């Protein structure tokens, strides 16, 4: 490994030195200016590389201490080092191309100087990120990937992000760290984004903006510097409604029809609108007792819950009058072949319930329909995808309420879905991965049947502004910049300033108490119903049989009363905790700690970087973040970005990584699929560590060289399609670990 590192840096020094010597000749005119630019760039690259070489070697010696286990080498420190290596290899490749073609009459010095300048700028910014990562090694406890506070280093990163130049990562260098097969797709998205941003608010409809953007996109395709500058401006300045509009382009009639024609054809693709009415579900511990599932009501009042049923084969119940009465007016619900008496298969023993991604603010099941159709065919099971209400109009906990209601409705109405009611798995990507976990946590709190497993794909498990090494990648990620991520999360928490006019004016803590009361109201209602039903004199005859089921040594209280009182007391303690304004319950073991080997500690501190010293008596507005003599490139128009802090972010039903052990111990087996270059990678690694630490069954699979959101791109290139198949294999895993045994 160290020999490989040395060989890379040696090759870099060699190619830079050779080209700098060659172009140091006396060319004149524009060719001479471009040659001088190329020489200066080669020298600056060598300077950055000499500073980076010992840092890269130091990280390579210690980053394995932050892996989930030796067989899954993945964490934010590794990812940062990998991105730097990719940048170095691209520079070597460009340098060798220059060496091989510089004598050709077709060789363009100015073009190649621009290429090398772009990668030199990227290398400079990556050097700054590695300095911040060294600070994290210094400030974090051993094994932890997150800085433990929203102030300090987390605040410093936000401040640096706001002022650092980012356009170089969205111009010539766009997507350099990802698989070559997906780079054209990312470039198309970036060009579409900046063209869409130019025409945003000039047209009323999304398709109008899309049409205008098509005609203005050419200049961004041929001018990467202009594209990078405009991309940076858009990501830093436009609000969450812009991102909602852009991400929903794929749901326009034209694009969704094209996607539908190219995707797997299924027999059932029905959109449902389920009336918001309360119903009872039996307790998992005792089926003779039940809990009332109230309809969602937070923020926007009671309204039907929207879902989509997808099934490759027509199964029993999927064409029933009861199901058709719930259908929405979307076209193409059921294949015309039904009129030819399509063969109806028996109900499936398994059901997959899906929660889509989209940052809690955008998209529906329609955007995710192509890969869900493929999953239904590959797995041979029906899929119920929930179209939960989106922020900022419907912030937390509305989406969670609707997902839980849909899950309970599916359990109660399995006969309508072509499902026997035997096995059920929850799956979701990004925001949907968060909802898969929190829906299961809420099922445990209610005492109803738990899902048999969870498949969370690049899930967001920590919505706070805690800094981590993988989150440093938001500086360059084309799909998940920090400014966009923070706007989406703030909208979900109801903390975005642009949503204040749409949401009841309230203090932060009163808002948390209100949302928590809504979230827990059903616990108390259900507990009260159980108690009254059990104490009702008309049902007294049931008491002896219930009491007979009590285990030896029990108090004599019926099991159902014990269960419901346990849920009630848990809700009471949780609400009291929220009212007290505590940040994390006592039994949370989020920041894992263990004794550190002195040798390991020595290795870590040899790489870790303390805050730079400041001259005595010198007063600065902000602390100095980088060593003396180095300064990253700054944006010409820095934004005044501020992350909105809210106690809602620390609600375990919002950030499951902060949940107490007692809530996580009730979860079913969890299978996590993460991306090595995803800014949310550390969310997955730390959540997997937490579950393993309390002996919960968990697996972690990390795919290489793909961006966050690859599932939505799974129909566009072979690399993303293979990664989507990994998710299918997680669902179709071994019987001892996963629910769907097909």
From TrEMBL:
Domain Alpha/beta hydrolase fold-3: 352-497, 649-711
GO cellular component, one term: cytosol
Domain spans labelled Hormone-sensitive lipase N-terminal: 9-319
Pathway: Lipid metabolism; Glycerolipid metabolism; triacylglycerol degradation
Intracellular or extracellular location(s): Cell membrane; Cytoplasm, Cytosol; Lipid droplet; Membrane, Caveola
EC identifiers of the protein: 3.1.1.23, 3.1.1.79
Protein keywords: Cell membrane, Cholesterol metabolism, Cytoplasm, Hydrolase, Lipid degradation, Lipid droplet, Lipid metabolism, Membrane, Steroid metabolism, Sterol metabolism
Entry annotated with the keyword Lipid metabolism: yes
Chief place where the protein resides: membrane
GO BP term, example: triglyceride catabolic process
GO molecular function: monoacylglycerol lipase activity; sterol ester esterase activity; triacylglycerol lipase activity
InterPro entries reported for this sequence: AB_hydrolase_3, AB_hydrolase_fold, HSL_N, Lipase_GDXG_HIS_AS
Matches recorded under SUPFAM superfamilies: alpha/beta-Hydrolases (SSF53474)
EC primary class: hydrolase
Pfam families: Abhydrolase_3, HSL_N
Catalysed reaction, written as an equation: 2-(9Z-octadecenoyl)-glycerol + H2O = glycerol + (9Z)-octadecenoate + H(+); 1,2,3-tri-(9Z-octadecenoyl)-glycerol + H2O = di-(9Z)-octadecenoylglycerol + (9Z)-octadecenoate + H(+); 1,3-di-(9Z-octadecenoyl)-glycerol + H2O = 1-(9Z-octadecenoyl)-glycerol + (9Z)-octadecenoate + H(+); 1,2-di-(9Z-octadecenoyl)-glycerol + H2O = (9Z-octadecenoyl)-glycerol + (9Z)-octadecenoate + H(+)
Transmembrane residue ranges: none
PANTHER family: HORMONE-SENSITIVE LIPASE (PTHR23025:SF1), TRIACYLGLYCEROL LIPASE (PTHR23025)
Family: Belongs to the 'GDXG' lipolytic enzyme family.
Subunit details: Monomer and homodimer. Interacts with CAVIN1 in the adipocyte cytoplasm. Interacts with PLIN5.
The name this protein goes by in its record: Hormone-sensitive lipase
Organism classification: Eukaryota, Metazoa, Chordata, Craniata, Vertebrata
